User: What shape does this take?
Amino acid sequence: MGKQILIKPIISEKAETISEDQGKYTFMVDKNANKVEIKKEIEKLYNVNVEAVNTLIMPSKTKRRNTRTGVNMGRVSGFKKAIVTLSEGDEIDFFRDI
Assistant: This one.
């Protein structure tokens, strides 16, 4: 079996807004995946037609949290994000099986 291209869909307030208004869906993908691989994987998994794929690499961030014992510091690792535009009339329902 090859590498896993799609890691998970990103479900946030902003991602939900663009999916409802513009038919664009957001996924966390493998850092080495290209747009053609992402398009094929989404068309195969969700049985939809993909018109465009935009990718961006989200940088890692330093997070800090104040606790009783002091300040805890850590890092959130960076990841690659893909915004997929579907053709007119297609949609993906992430909550269908719940």
